[in-house]
Amino acid sequence: MVVAEEQQKALAADFYWADGQEPHLSRRREILTTHPEIKELFGPDIWAFPKIVAVVLLQLWTAYCLKDASLSTMFIVAYFFGSFLNHNLFLAIHELSHNLAFSTPIYNRLLGIFANLPVGVPMSVTFQKYHLDHHLYQGVEGMDMDIPSYAEGRLIRNIYTKILWVLFQLFFYALRPLFLNPKDPGFWEVANFAIQLFADFTWIYIYGWKSFMYFILSTFVGGGLHPIAGHFISEHYVFQKGQETYSYYGPLNLLAWSVGYHNEHHDFPRIPGSKLWRVKEIAPEYYEGLASYRSWTQVIYMYITDASVGPFSRMMRKSHFGPEKKSK
């Protein structure tokens, strides 16, 4: 109880409000002026397609092998193996949302729907719609759905509720946009939904519910209290006041499409994850002075135990700092 009371006193009651634009646009311009050769890194990753196909097939094969397994075996395999595969596919969908597998957008969208299959829940097209807003309106009130809601900030006030929030953060991440900034579904969103449901029910009909539950377990345990899910917190939660985006330079980048290079990604969203390390290598003077991480597990631990950090630990800015006003 003492810990809970101390956290309630220390946790902020509102977001950190910024009085200017997000930092990436100005840094991008400055880096391109200083290092114009970085433009050579722009464009699709030719290895994205075979990598995605390999992970999808491996996950399908694993689910097939587990069709008669016990629930305990399924959970263990899902946590220590399938979670990494499905999270890899989630982050592959992130790459595809930036059209980083093919130059033609429709091919990226189709590949995203394919990559979505072992995830079990339709999300590829919807993710792209809201994720691009996150880049265009980083931190802008009512537009950036990566930022927790006021309800989350008011409810998650101590170490115990923070543990629950981390466990179920994928639900918050997925459902938040539908409540705070709902958008009418388009053709591709409906197609994603229909194809995913058809694939799910076909798999259940052929291999049974237990095999299908492996997909769901892999998705949601890998999005909760799991090392690879630490990127959700590490990317933009403010642990050092004044810095709103953080990079991670640890080994899990190998399984996570280098999403850990997050400052570099926001600075240059047209560069595929496989080449983001080159940005830091070419322009180290812009990144070496920024706070960064080496462990996503440590980030989760810090978030839960740090009495001053919670859902409100994000940079927020008013709507007039978004691109609509900026272009006038």
From TrEMBL:
GO cellular component term of the entry, any: endoplasmic reticulum membrane
PANTHER family: SPHINGOLIPID DELTA 4 DESATURASE/C-4 HYDROXYLASE PROTEIN DES2, SPHINGOLIPID DELTA(4)-DESATURASE DES1
Protein name: Sphingolipid delta(4)-desaturase DES1-like
Entry EC number(s): 1.14.19.17
Record function comment: Sphingolipid-delta-4-desaturase required for the biosynthesis of delta-4-unsaturated sphingolipids and derivatives.
Pfam families in alphabetical order: FA_desaturase, Lipid_DES
Domain Sphingolipid delta4-desaturase N-terminal: 10-48
Transmembrane segment boundaries: 73-93, 155-175, 212-233
Keyword Protein biosynthesis appears in the UniProt entry: no
Protein's membrane topology: Multi-pass membrane protein
Domain of life per record: Eukaryota
GO terms assigned for molecular function: sphingolipid delta-4 desaturase activity
Primary location class: endoplasmic reticulum
Example of a GO biological process term: ceramide biosynthetic process
Signal peptide: none
Family: Belongs to the fatty acid desaturase type 1 family. DEGS subfamily.
Keywords: Endoplasmic reticulum, Lipid metabolism, Membrane, Oxidoreductase, Transmembrane, Transmembrane helix
Cell compartment(s), UniProt: Endoplasmic reticulum membrane; Membrane
Catalytic activity: an N-acylsphinganine + 2 Fe(II)-[cytochrome b5] + O2 + 2 H(+) = an N-acylsphing-4-enine + 2 Fe(III)-[cytochrome b5] + 2 H2O
